[in-house]
Amino acid sequence: MRRVRAIVTGRVQGVGFRAFAVDEARDHGLTGWVRNRADGTVELEAQGDDARVAALLAWCKVGPPAARVSGVAVEELAVVAGEPGFVRR
């Protein structure tokens, strides 16, 4: 079990990044959340099996079709117990 925080930079707001990220995370059975930040980046926390988290992070490096991702900074976090699913904030 692994939990990460990722900050995604580039043209990632106004392109459906959060909605696509929710679908991608749910498809992988992950829990956590995603949100836009005031500085134009997207932040997410994702938790689950290591391979599934890695798959979401790989997707974040590309994003949805209209996005232009320039970077993904990843930080390892402590696992959160009892999180019900993956949501958009």
How would you characterize the overall build of this protein?
This protein has 89 residues and is α+β, with helices and mostly antiparallel strands. It has one domain: 2-Layer Sandwich (Alpha-Beta Plaits), CATH 3.30.70. Helices cover 25% and strands 40% of the residues. It has a five-stranded mixed sheet with strand order 4-1-3-2-5, covered by helices on one side. The radius of gyration is 12 Å and the shape is globular.
Task: Give descriptors for this structure.
89 residues; alpha+beta; Alpha-Beta Plaits; five-stranded mixed β-sheet; 2 helices; 5 strands; 25% helix
Work out the helix count.
2
CATH C-level class? Alpha Beta
Radius of gyration of CA atoms, rounded to a whole number = 12 Å
Poorly predicted regions are none
In the sheet with the most strands, the strands line up as 4-1-3-2-5
Number of strands: 5
* Largest beta-sheet details: 5 strands, mixed
CA(first)-CA(last) distance? 23 Å
> What is the H-and-E element order?
EHEEHEE
Q: Overall mean pLDDT score? A: 97
CATH architecture: 2-Layer Sandwich
Share of β-strand residues: 35-45%
What is the multimeric organization of the chains shown?
single chain
Number of structurally distinct domains: 1
CATH topology category name: Alpha-Beta Plaits
Q: Helix/strand/pairing class, anyone?
A: alpha+beta
Helical proportion, percent range: 10-25%
Shape: globular
